[in-house]
Queue: 2 jobs
Job 1
Amino acid sequence: MTMRTYVHFICPNGHLGEERTSENDQPFSDMWESVTLTGMRAVKVGQEDHYTCEKCGELMSQTQRPK
Ligand SMILES: [Zn+2]
């Protein structure tokens, strides 16, 4: 079974991004996890991981699922 988790992000200019995590939890297959980013990029700021907007480069912050 594959489990998918969606986390939504938004930048100060209102662009939306999405982080989709897929996890395979079958007992007889290798554990794997993959993260797919939509509309944003992963960056390192000091020791921390952040996402920046693909359109304007501002930092993204987590938001509720858009309606
Ligand atoms: Zn933006």
Job 2
Amino acid sequence: MFKHSFVAAFAALAFSGSALAQDLTGGDPEAGAKVFNKCRACHMVGEDAKNRVGPTLNGIVGMEWGKVDGFKYSSSLTEIAAAEGKRWDLATLSAYLEKPRDVIPKGRMAFAGLRKAEERADVIAYLATFGPDGATVDPAPVLEAAAGEGS
Ligand code: HEC
């Protein structure tokens, strides 16, 4: 009995894991633009974007951690980035947006997190529409390229 429910729970977990990986490339950029309203107090995107409380997020999907010019990151972020060569692949970005402190324990992003997987996928899809210079790009190849990196 116990063994059975354990196996079932494990199978459910494994399944939701793979479903999540797919969901992360399937977000809706328009819905994500609304989710991004929760980020706008601190972050800008687009051609006129400037660093504010947080760095600009142009081209962030798939980018290395902590590479926005002129932004002073926390030492927690830069130390983890230097030690582990981190990128904002989809899994890492989703985990950070869910609970920033789980990914960067002493980081400076004072944000409670997005609890819903759908909101995370949507905002990631929205961010993927901004190329490194802030111009609009097709998000699909950006999301595909960032899906499998898993760093
Ligand atoms: C209260 C301000 C605040 C809010 C709200 C906020 N952020 Fe941040 N964010 C920051 C700060 C500050 C940093 C830099 C973190 C550090 O240095 O540890 C950051 C860093 C980041 C990074 C890493 C950037 C890089 O160059 O490596 C990403 C990605 C990010 N935020 C996305 C988001 C998204 C998406 C939202 C909304 C869902 C959001 N943030 C909401 C302040 C905020």
